[in-house]
Amino acid sequence: MALSRTDKEQIIKELAELFESSKMTVVANYEGMTVAQMQAFRRKAEETGSTIKVVKNRLVIKALEGDDRLKDVDKSLLNNMLLYVFNDQDEVAGPQTVKSFVKEAEAPLEFIGGITVEGEFMPAEDVSRLADLPSKSELIAGVVNILQSPAKNVVSAVNGKLPAVLQAIEASKS
Question: pTM to 2 decimals?
Answer without folding.
Answer: 0.77
